[in-house]
């Protein structure tokens, strides 16, 4: 049996029936189980929303279906990807309205629902109104809607209540609607103006006190929802870094994303070497508009920071032919995939990254971990393995090089990133010593701000923060941070700065270090190895690791320790 759309929706409908909540399919019930390009439009009572979503989540979990996108428009929209690779977009509503103007309540629709095989569907009278309102949003009536409305008019006209419902909904226009609807596909169809419908919906609240109260309620609810969408638009921002990426690849990639982030709302931005202020402002506004409408913004540039951190953001990089690495700002997770087709590889990366939403871990602050070891011991490789293997139960994963920072452009342990040139030891002159001390104080304050500041990464609830070396670099390799002051002050700074929960010490033999990077001479290896053994480590727990083991095995050991500490917190 294929674990596709039919299997997922069949299980979902079964669980809905078992729960006993009232629901119905508003339109397109003929394609409910089969047509992967058709949305599923449902209606539930407002008080059943939470139970409805719990049932939906359980059906997705039991069928192996992944949630890719959740967004609030006038309705609630959830997009899933089944194990068979089929899309399922489920939109559910708790009322039918046009803008802030009420049309039909959920209770009205559900009281008149009818049974069609194993589905509850909207009454033909209500489905007609739903299709007219949907067309009113677009000021356009598609051929599919025309045909369906003509089919519905013959069924709805049998009900004596239809004319009364239409007149309560559309006023005077409602009396003409059956005639218009019956002639939609006729060569002699009657002409009407969409303004007739709009005027009818504008004036109805003036005639019905309950509708007037509902209009004001929807007005304030929409203001609240607008603020949320302005702060966190439902779209997706993608930074793509690849010299081999072509314009045709971008079009194919955006078409693959169309079921989640519609192509009509998406945007592609090319990088330019000389970007003037006007160019940047224009593209920021265009990108924000696309994200606000729920589209994807593809920025074909290695630069970052076009838009603030609150947007859902992914980074996609190709460093080797046929190999792609991806990273997610929201989860901090990383993935690698190899594909011949660049758009298909990026699409697979994207669906895996955005579906891996981290759980909110219990606890008020982040778990702070430090990786210690000599150059070439595999700290960056281990951090990348942790970012790839970290389960969502641990929460968000954050990686920082040298210091934990306030939230901004995130850091990722990308493969094959260029190492900085080896710095020579600074001279011991008074000026250099003073500058070293000032930098030490500044970096200690930055580390403290990451813990105590209102946007500090160490205050992020439900996160695991991994830092490469931290302030211990002042004792292990002072030349790399241009420090020429006394080591006693560096120890004092470590006592005063935020202390890690876990320190992972990678112990590696000099022969293995020389074969990996060869950045350190034999004398430097001996000196740093001695410093590492004698270094005071301030942490809740210190774990020694064998740096000669595969990074996946080491990452598994680290995650076990992190999980154990998380449970005991």
Would you kindly provide a written description of the structure presented here, covering whatever features stand out?
The strands form five sheets. A six-stranded mixed sheet has the order 11-12-10-13-14-15, with helices on both faces. The chain is of the alpha/beta class and 569 residues long. The chain contains 19 helices and 20 strands. It has helices at residues 5-19, 49-63, 106-111, 124-138, 143-156, 162-170, 172-182, 194-207, 209-231, 247-257, 277-292, 342-355, 379-389, 430-452, 473-476, 487-496, 510-516, 522-534, 551-568; strands at residues 23-27, 40-44, 66-72, 76-81, 87-93, 95-98, 101-105, 114-116, 119-121, 236-241, 267-270, 296-300, 313-320, 323-328, 334-338, 367-372, 396-401, 463-468, 502-507, 541-546. The protein has three domains: 5-229, no CATH class; 232-355, 3-Layer(aba) Sandwich (Rossmann fold); 367-414 and 426-568, P-loop containing nucleotide triphosphate hydrolases (Rossmann fold, 3-Layer(aba) Sandwich).
Key traits:
single chain, about 575 residues, alpha/beta, Rossmann fold, 3 domains, 6-stranded mixed beta sheet, 5-stranded mixed beta sheet
**Strand percent estimate:** 15-25%
Dominant shape: elongated
> How much is the average pLDDT?
86
Number of domains: 3
Seen as an oligomer or otherwise, the chain set is: single chain
Cα distance, first to last residue?
Answer: 44 Å
Largest sheet: 6 strands, mixed
For the largest sheet, list the strands in their spatial order: 11-12-10-13-14-15
Rg measurement, Å? 30 Å
Helix/strand/pairing category:
alpha/beta
Please tally the β strands and state the result: 20
Low-confidence stretches: none
Number of helices: 19
- Kindly state the percentage of residues in helix: 40-55%
